[in-house]
Amino acid sequence: MKKKGVMAALLALTLAVVPITGCGAGFTGDDNSKTESTEKGGEASGEKETSGEVLSVATNAEVKTLVQWAASEESAFMVNNQVQEGLFRMDADNKPQPALCDTYEVSDDKLVYTFHLRDGIQWSNGESITANDFVFAWLKQMGTEATNGYSFIMNDYIVNAQEYSEGTAKAEDVGAKAVDDQTFEVTLKSPTPYFINLTTMVMFFPVNEKFYTKQGDKYALAPENMLYSGPYTITEYDPSVGVTLAKNDKYWDKDNVQIADAKIRVVKDAAAALSAYQAGELSQVQLDSSNVTANQDNPEFGNEIDFRTTYIQFNLTDPVVGNVNMRKAIAMAIDRTALTKNILADGSAPGTGLIADGMAGDGTKTFRELNGEVTSFDPAKAKEYYDKAAEELGSAPSEVTMLVADDSVTKAVATFLQSELEKNLGLKMVIDTKTAQGRGELMDANNYQMGLTAWGADYDDAMTYLDLWTNGTPYRGNYADDTYNSLIADAKSQTDDTARLQDMLQAEKKLVEEDVVVSPVYHRGSATLTKSNVQNLISHPIGVPIEFKYASFK
């Protein structure tokens, strides 16, 4: 997900679960570093449970930072979710369950949440986790130090959070207060039915202020520069290689963590992962399109659907795609059904709208069913818009450029889009491939024409997509529209669920169909092979992609 500014490239995640033997199955590092990290105080002390089996999962993007108010990529979220924890954690049914919080109350007007922390919860160094740790971390996310583009996730909801971010309110004015060490009180601007879901997200995890201050600029650069509140601790970390994890003996629910050792490895090539699986080195592998059909009858085969949409982000300041008719032409020139059937072939669905298939609507129908197709394939109409755009621009463009990340799935999708624009518009498209980090940096710097990116839902509500385009950032195409912003603002303040839903339905149509700020391409699905010795490795369609806590080996 590069979840950035709000989220840069969120591209397909390759999963691989590995029973490791010998020298670590290609992962750089050795067991000595685990002892070194423990002695430096960043790890839990005590004997470490070992079973001879290691749960290993691969991500296709670098884990470039683990500072939660700087991290915006799915890879970083996946790591942080294993080693940290918030007030709530998603369960196997994608429902938030009390985690560091034991109980809570909500006021009658649904504005004040009072969370009671569990007795005896500790950081990995043995210090108590307190309500002040939440206040400190949340203020960081609201403040000017936050660079992940996620400040809105608090500022839009919590009293005086936006004012604090702008420097017009003090920390004590913000509606996030430590009543005492075990009582954390949050005051919202308006009723927010999905607020508990938000607290499962990485941005809402606590941070020990004393430890953070002591580390200074070294915070989160190495295992010994972090403290951990979740099921695991980090023993090795290299942004381009991945992380090695060990069970956290200070975790409050350690007795229900069955797997002692785990790894998250940076692997960009899906074909290499399949080869490793076939050689008996991997326990789970995500299949690319060329291998789905051949494996559908395999008893190890499985399908999952994700609340994640890959889309084209247009830069509205660009002279060519700043033209709305050019954007409409490009959007209508793409046969999304052919893409998902013939290229992806993994259960992904055509991107007929920004909001992913299956996400909540009115309780009877999904959002997608209610709003229908707001993006369609119509090559004849696309050519009409293209000719009109060329007339308005003075001539047809010689070419356009699409900025994409360097994983194999994204490159395959980009090649398909290139072919579609050439075939249906006669428009040449140059593919500019960068690392996920490099692509995100260029988009943040407004140095792109079109970018292929994605967003994975953080909670089961359309707002998790729609409020991204209210901030006018380069990463979001520099879109700033008063009507759109008013629809989002009204939806966020509404106490009438029907009126709120209508605001969001209209907002999606304006963003995608009328203004064509983005062009949805597909909603991600995945096809996997899983060895029978791994069970309860939970994948979430919302928020973080995968949970180690519930997994075990047979």
Structure description:
The structure is a single chain. The protein is of the alpha+beta class and 554 residues long. 30% of the residues lie in helices and 20% in strands. The N terminus is likely disordered. It contains 18 helices and 22 strands. The strands form six sheets. Strands 1, 12, 13, 14, 15, 16, 17 and 18 form an eight-stranded mixed beta sheet that branches.
Which structural class do the helices and strands define?
alpha+beta
**Binned strand content:** 15-25%
CA radius of gyration: 23 Å
Low-confidence stretches: 1-51
Write down the oligomeric state: single chain
Proportion of helical residues: 25-40%
List its salient traits.
18 helices; disordered N terminus; 20% strand; 554 residues
Outline of the structure:
With 554 residues, this protein is an alpha+beta fold. The protein has helices at residues 32-39, 74-83, 131-142, 152-155, 161-166, 195-198, 209-215, 270-278, 289-295, 324-332, 336-344, 367-371, 379-393, 408-425, 436-444, 463-466, 482-493, 497-514; strands at 16-17, 55-59, 88-90, 96-98, 101-106, 112-117, 176-180, 183-187, 232-238, 242-247, 261-266, 284-286, 301-314, 349-350, 400-405, 429-434, 450-456, 518-530, 534-535, 538-539, 546-547, 552-553.
